[in-house]
Amino acid sequence: IPEYAFIGRSNVGKSSLINMLTDRKSLAKTSGRPGKTQLINHFIINEEWYLVDLPGYGYARVSKTSKKKFQKFITNYFEQRQQLVSAFVLVDIRHKPQPIDLEFMQYLGENGIPFGIVFTKADKLKPNAIDNHVDDYCKELLKTWEEIPPYFITSSSKKIGQDDVLDFINNTNEEIEALKNQ
Ligand code: GDP
Asked: Where is the EngB-type G domain (predicted)?
């Protein structure tokens, strides 16, 4: 079964996004407190694909050892996942490109792991500000990448972008099926 992994800094809105995508409020727990989703959670969607909820990274108040442990944990996941089709890196649309996110995308790229970017909390910006922030982000990416990865503008509180993400995943799954049956 194809698998899609969701990851981002703590508090980026990952749990809320997962709740929106799965339409089940109780599925992933949200919290106002950073760093609460500690372990990997798998959700099976329509018996067609796995949504993988990876722990949030980059919260400030953790020791160096636990940061190392966490890195190991994440890299183990990415090295072992045969079924992983794509990762989704979540970034808060209000923020300028953050080194920790860019480094993480770099890591994915170097390891040949396809990824998309999910901009979260789009309800917090006006439409023209959204465009500007996305443009800035793309410009930053083009400094190191040849192409812009697929990206999605979402708001879990206003239910924006749900279909864009799900359509992308469903279309990708159909392509995979079609290739299999060739
Ligand atoms: P996680 O730590 O990445 O899983 O983030 P959560 O989903 O728990 O959200 C962190 C905080 O951001 C919570 O206070 C949420 O209510 C808030 N939040 C999440 N998504 C949105 C959104 O789309 N719009 C707004 N305005 N707030 C959001």
From this structure: 1-175
